[in-house]
Amino acid sequence: MTLRVLAAMSGGVDSAVAAARAAEAGHDVTGVHLALSKNPQSYRTGARGCCTAEDSRDARRAADVIGLPFYVWDMAEEFDRDVVQDFVSEYAAGRTPNPCLRCNEKIKFEAVLDRAIALGFDAVCTGHHVRKTDGRLRRSVDADKDQSYVLGVLDREQVAHAMFPLGDCTKDEVRAEADRRGLAVADKPDSHDICFIADGDTAGFLNGRLGDEPGPIKDEAGEVLGTHQGAHSFTVGQRKGLNLGGAAKRRYVLSIEPVENTVTVGPRESLQVDEITAERPVWSGGEPFADPTACTVQLRAHGEVYGCTAVQRDGELLIRLDEPATGVAAGQAAVLYDGDIVLGSGTIGATSRSGEPAPTG
């Protein structure tokens, strides 16, 4: 069946090959690049493959080679509101957001998909490394590049209108194919930085938005060990940058209290948690768990996968890990899996250590 497909072309090699594959499959494909910055000079440069000043030109050249009509959509207002401002407000609240995850949720698969459907397109195609079978997301065959975690926030309707042509191949195979197709982005480096923080200095960016606000760094007993210039500069599990001298040995950030502007530190073992409460659950690959159900969970991008028992109650996702995890930060996503199939997700709101065995169904 021929579909009208909108291919989101970031300017990187993955989205270019994905668009080429969709066209080769016989679909009616249109390329679109998302202009995300009101002031492009304020965003990162250097041809990294996501949101840079060079990327629009790279995307246009790739579309020309493939033979696609190509447009640039101005999404700067939506990106600033739903990604940049969300990033700042989450840090101000003592949480640790994932801006790429939020961009996928709010921009690529909400704002863009809504506009695409309104214009008569059947699907949005992206270069994410993830598979879709029987309407459900599955991990990529390339475990090192798997992006199912950052797409775990999508709902069932969004997944239904998404196309992911790259989930069945490795990144090396994608680059080789781009070279065979004559795409100049074949050797373009991957993007790993936050696109709207040009110099990579997250603490400096947040200080510029939230200002310096000195406060205490305390241990678990409440003893003041030092001071900081803003609790928003820290994240749970962080060890570097505490500037506590000898007192910093084997101490990690355990919690951040934005109201009191306090950072609490302690030994690594105090980071261990086995109970997680996640807010705003979304189920794209299964029905909500009415009873405690065994599955697995991933708690951060490219992070370890844990066995767990999960249940949805009163609009929250309650997760009990089979083994304790460390460095679990509020604001990150908890994505549930059945094997390699994404079941659903929630945003981590609270964690604790019970010390008790996980419940069974």
UniProtKB/TrEMBL annotation:
This is tRNA-specific 2-thiouridylase MnmA. Residues 205-266 form the tRNA-specific 2-thiouridylase MnmA-like central domain. It is found in: Cytoplasm. It comes from the Bacteria. ATP binds at residues 8-15, 34, 127. It is an enzyme of class 2 (transferase). CDD domains: MnmA_TRMU-like. The active site is at 103 (nucleophile), 195 (cysteine persulfide intermediate). Its EC number is 2.8.1.13. InterPro entries: MnmA-like (IPR004506), MnmA-like_C (IPR046885), MnmA-like_central (IPR046884), MnmA-like_central_sf (IPR023382), Rossmann-like_a/b/a_fold (IPR014729). Keywords: ATP-binding, Cytoplasm, Disulfide bond, Nucleotide-binding, RNA-binding, Transferase, tRNA processing, tRNA-binding. GO terms for biological process: tRNA wobble position uridine thiolation. Belongs to the MnmA/TRMU family. PANTHER family: MITOCHONDRIAL TRNA-SPECIFIC 2-THIOURIDYLASE 1 (PTHR11933:SF5), TRNA 5-METHYLAMINOMETHYL-2-THIOURIDYLATE -METHYLTRANSFERASE (PTHR11933). Catalyzes the 2-thiolation of uridine at the wobble position (U34) of tRNA, leading to the formation of s(2)U34. It comes from Streptomonospora litoralis. Residues 274-348 form the tRNA-specific 2-thiouridylase MnmA-like C-terminal domain. The record marks 128, 332 as: Interaction with tRNA. GO terms for cellular component: cytoplasm. GO terms for molecular function: ATP binding; tRNA binding; tRNA-uridine 2-sulfurtransferase activity. NCBIfam families: PRK00143.1, trmU. Residues 145-147 are annotated as: Interaction with tRNA. The gene is mnmA. It catalyses: S-sulfanyl-L-cysteinyl-[protein] + uridine(34) in tRNA + AH2 + ATP = 2-thiouridine(34) in tRNA + L-cysteinyl-[protein] + A + AMP + diphosphate + H(+).
